[in-house]
Every structure is written in C-alpha cells, then in structure tokens.
Amino acid sequence: LCTLSITMNKSKPHVVVLGSGFAAFSLAKQADLSLFDLTLVSPRNHFLFTPLLPSTTVGTIEFRSIIEPIRIARPAVKFFQAVCKSIDLKKKTIRCEGSPETKFVLSYDILVIAVGSTVNTYGIPGVREHALFLKDLSDARKIRQRIIDCFEQAAQPNISEERRQQLLHFVVVGGGPTGVEFAAEMHDFLQDDLTKSYPGLSEKMRITLLEATAHILNTFDAALSDYTARLFRRQNIQLRTASPVKKINARKIYLKDGTAIPYGLVVWTAGVGPSDLVDTLPFEKDKSSRILTDDFFIVPGFEDVYALGDCATPQKKNFPATAQVAQQEGKYLAKVLTAKLSGRTVKPFEYRHYGMLAYVGSNRALADLATVKGKGFSTWLFWRSAYLTRLVSVKNKVLVIFDWFKTFVFGRDISRF
C-alpha cells in the first residue's frame, strides 16, 4: 500500500491536534483560526459527553443524545478520522492510519497530544477477553445488548436454575464514579423496567460492586462515600470492598481471597492507563505513564509539542484524569497558542476545582462541592441541571431532556437489535 504525504497550506502555522475528547474538543471550539490552521485527527469523529455515558447503557438516555460531530461543531477545523500510529519529532510529521487501505503522513508546525487514556486491566488474566468496558458509546451499546441477552437467556424454559442465577448476576469491578453510576443505573433499570418485563425473574436479579480498596468513591468526601454504601445496601446492591480480582474466565470471577463469583455480565471500570501511542513516545512520564509537561503544557525539550488531558499532567501538579480538568486545559491552551502566535505572554495554567457529582440511584445523587456536601433527591435535581447546562449544543440539551421525559413516562426500551 502506498502512503500519502499531506502538507497543509503554509500561509499560516499548521496546528495538529490528536484526539476528540474534552481537551481536544475544547481547544478546537476556542481556537482563533485567523492565526493558524487547525487539523484534528482522531479515530472517533465526534465528541462524547462522558459524564452521562453510564445512562446510555440502560436506555435512560439514547446514544446519539450525548455526542456532537466534530465537522458540525467547528466546520472550519479540518478533520481526519484516523489513528496516529507514530510521531517523527525531528521531521515534525505524524504517521496515521484511517483503515488498512488508508495511510498517510501529516506535517505540522505545532503538535497537540490529547489522546486521552485507555482501560487499565493491570495485567489480570481474562479481563480483556471476558469483561466489558465503559469508555465509549460502542462499549455502552455492548453492555446494553448483553443485559438484554442475559434476561432473554434466563427466561428460556430449559435453563437450569444454577445457570439462570448466573446469567442474572451483574458484576461491576471498580468503585469509582463510573462504576458507582453504572451500578446505580443498572439498579434503576432492574427495578423500574426489567421486573415488569420479565416477571418471575426479579427475585433472582443481583448486582455486585467489587472494589480493591477499603472504600468506594475514594475521591469523594468520606461522609458521602458512606452514604452511598448504605444506600446501595438498601437497594440490595452487594458491596465487596478490599476485594481485588485475581482472574476472570467465561463464567466466573476469581478474587484474591479465593472466592469464585459466577456472573452473566462483568463491567470493568477499575482504572485507566496510557494509550499505545503515549507508550511509544520518548517523553518523561509520571508513575501513571502520563506525559509530564510544564505549566503551559509544553513538553520539555520540544517547544512545538504540547500534551494535555488524561494523557498528560504538569510536573508536580498531578491533576486528576477528569472531564473538568481536560476541558479547562483545552480552553487554556487555545489562549496559549493565540498568545504565542501574537507575540504575547500568558500566565501559567491554574486549575479551578468545581467539585464532583455522581448519580447513586433511586433519583438520588451526590454533590461534593467546595462549600456544599449534598446528597439525596434535591441533589439529583441539581446533578441533572448541572450536566444539562454543560452539554455542548442546544440539540444535545433538547434530546437529553426528551430522553429523560420519555423514560419517566414510558420506561426504558428493552429491545435487542
């Protein structure tokens, strides 16, 4: 196969951004395109509002309601749907692959690495083969289909009781916000919809949340973590803390204490790790394999290379890999590039922590803010309104409101297609 070399118009500096997550998307939206040409390269041609991703796994919100196509969000930005395979820092080019038949080399004047993170399996045998992840819409779709598959199989007349109980056991590995929110959404789905649609199976349905450390929601206030643990127990969600996973096979999870847990579905939300591209780069990295940068997100020793989002962190700062951090970094880097090309200076990046939110089921949520530690129904209303205002387009806001209303009136859809 021949490889095409793409050189952009040199009338303005060419900025290439790798990624389409919060950091890259915020940069693309805020960039002053009168000063430079911007090309975005990503295997995903849309921005995904990940805080509401757990809601899509059970149909509370539909998949397309929380995505925004890159080409529509900023038409002036040039976009290539491809994976960056390698970077030549001397020649200032990147090698990309859109498909096995489509390969090209793209030159840049300024490179921004915002490729995010991948699922961290910690080398545990069987995780990649048997667990489902929750990082993208394709993952959410697989989970949604698998849930219905488990119930349809369990409803068959010739299934043994042991197999039926296994199929109706849903296990979440990881007690962080994503794992907790998925367990909460799963509980609502079971109680509000699947119990009615699959009578006789409700008493056999179980949800188990496994966490390797002593507490769930370790980044939240301890009182909110304890509240969630008590609420989950009232909802019959079994919590197993201090329960690291040893291995997974096609039907059972094995814990390090020797316990074997049969399952119908395993959702792995236990941590994040570096992408294949970041692993190959010769930059200095922290213990989590994130690229270390200065306070302006410049990679030391490479004045025209920037890194931000989940794949990077300023030296000695160790910012959490969250959406609000990445979004603020993207907006800030747009100002840095504008200042650089205008001959001005900017102050180093300062992160403003706005707090953390999490849905915990039964129309209850948590809010861990600087001044307020909220929980319960009123916090759930705040959680919904806060996320609604942060959706990137009017279209997304309207669709999400409609989805919430539709779920309230008609319930969640259980079709498998």
Topology (elements, then pairings):
Elements: E1 4-6, E2 14-18, H1 22-30, E3 37-42, E4 46-48, H2 53-56, E5 67-69, H3 70-73, E6 78-81, E7 83-88, E8 93-99, E9 102-107, E10 110-113, E11 118-119, H4 127-130, E12 132-133, H5 137-154, H6 161-167, E13 169-173, H7 177-197, E14 206-210, H8 222-234, E15 237-240, E16 245-248, E17 252-255, E18 260-262, E19 265-268, E20 272-273, H9 276-280, E21 291-293, E22 298-299, E23 302-307, E24 312-314, H10 323-342, E25 356-361, E26 364-368, E27 373-376, H11 377-390, H12 394-410
Parallel strand pairs: 1-9, 2-3, 2-10, 3-6, 10-23, 12-19, 13-14, 13-19, 14-15, 21-24
Antiparallel strand pairs: 4-5, 7-8, 8-9, 11-20, 16-17, 17-18, 22-23, 25-26, 26-27
Helix pairs in contact: 1-10, 5-6
